[in-house]
Amino acid sequence: MNELQGRKLVLGVTGGVAAYKAAELVRLLGKAGADVHVVLTAGGARFVTAVTYQALSGNPVWSDLWDARMDNNMAHIDLSRDADAVLVAPASADFLARLAQGRSDDLLSTLCLARDCPLLVAPAMNRQMWEHPATRRNVHTLMGDGVSVVGPAAGDQACGEVGMGRMLEPEEVLDAVIAFFTPKRLAGRKVVMTAGPTFEAIDPVRGITNTSSGKMGYAIAAACACAGAEVTLVSGPVALPVPAGVRHIGVQSALQMRSVVLQSLPGADVFIGVAAVADYRPLLTAEHKIKKSGETMSIELTPNPDILAEVAARPDAPFCVGFAAESRELDAYAEGKRRNKKLPMLVGNLVADALGGDDNTVILYDDAGRHPLPRAPKQEIARQIVEHLAKLLPAAAAGPH
Ligand code: CTP
User: Fold this and answer.
1) Which domains does the chain have, with CATH numbers?
2) In terms of Cα–Cα distance, which of 400, 389, 242, 252 is closest to 322?
3) Which positions are annotated as active-site residues?
């Protein structure tokens, strides 16, 4: 179950081209389990009409302060009364200005003023409007009032300019809302982790690697960041976006991964080894591309260091979490690896279930035994792994040791 399940959200849509993203956002929030009630400003209603939002949210759409559909004629009070949050996306420059002034001259501004739940805004505007001192001032005021400002991002704008002011993509706004509601169980904790495959070069154009997609590791990095941790993600080559708020260091080989991990380790409270580190690398890497000779050839391999075992064996070892992907006898192999590497926690899965896909079935192993988790998307599994490790983490003072 994710943090949005059963939450009532009011989504305010103000006038801006980015309103087209709000339609997708309604769909994503609904899919994540939220009950979404859309409120349009007059400007917002000119871009995407109420019909679309009503169909996507399954709820009536509101825009008039005097809407007679509300029995008591108090839409501004009733809509936000039992809401868990109000989210305004896109939030135009004008709406931010009105919000900063505490205006209440339409339904959305009035319910923002009358609410007693958190308010998040996802600004969207031309880059000059975003950079204008008046907008800077308004955003500063809103943050001082406890409003959470989500984005904006830099990039191509509808006006043809390039710069800061583009509304975050719907998936990014969704992630920010989930992060907002996620209890900060790892606040003040520093997490170092590995993810993805490693690539062990044979010559300048060839190498040995594996099919790890990095999805599980990246989902865990995102879940740790959501839980308030400071996350350093040391990753082999993958085709995934870096999760928001995560420090990412890209590497190729196991030796590079080891050296970056060791450099990042001071002060870490947690180390999570999710990477599918190649167990062997070519003993020699050819300086130039190897030419075919038509003969059989062999490549001599030498073992790579076990990064996780090395970290766990340190006298100042952080809380270490390992992964084991097995093709059979999961319990025996996984628990064996946990004991051999002296890990307080290990996540085991059957390879057939995991590699590359979006879902996973895992079993958590710790000193108390085995804890199977139901099959779920990797994001959900990641959230439960983080929750479990947060419970096991020694209650030592947070922050660098
Ligand atoms: N690991 C590591 N460094 C390595 C190898 C593995 O940090 N050189 C970490 C992985 O990130 C994972 C765990 O160790 O957390 C996997 O354990 P391991 O016993 O090495 O698994 P396999 O490599 O799959 O071992 P085997 O091939 O013997 O099953």
Assistant:
1) 8-181 (3.40.50.1950), 190-397 (3.40.50.10300)
2) 389
3) 159
